[in-house]
Amino acid sequence: MNVYNSGNPILEEHRDRLFTKFAHIDEGGEKRDGFGMGLYLIREIVRKHGGDMWYEPRQDGSDFIIILPKQPV
Fold this sequence. Notes:
The protein is of the alpha+beta class. 15% of the residues lie in helices and 25% in strands. It has a 3-stranded antiparallel beta sheet with strand order 1-3-2, with helices on one face. A hairpin with a 2-residue loop joins strand 2 (52-58) and strand 3 (61-67). The model has no long low-confidence stretch (mean pLDDT 86).
């Protein structure tokens, strides 16, 4: 699964914190609501199901990639 965000790309110096607990990344001084747990929790759930999640920068935004193993039906 690929989730595309059309906002500003995340600066390279902030990328190592994307999936950490309570991470708030200040891009442009905007106030951010929330606890900073969203990406951390999603990746943990995906990993518990045998998958993985990562970030890929784009010139016009960001891609968040989620891979899950194929399960027999």
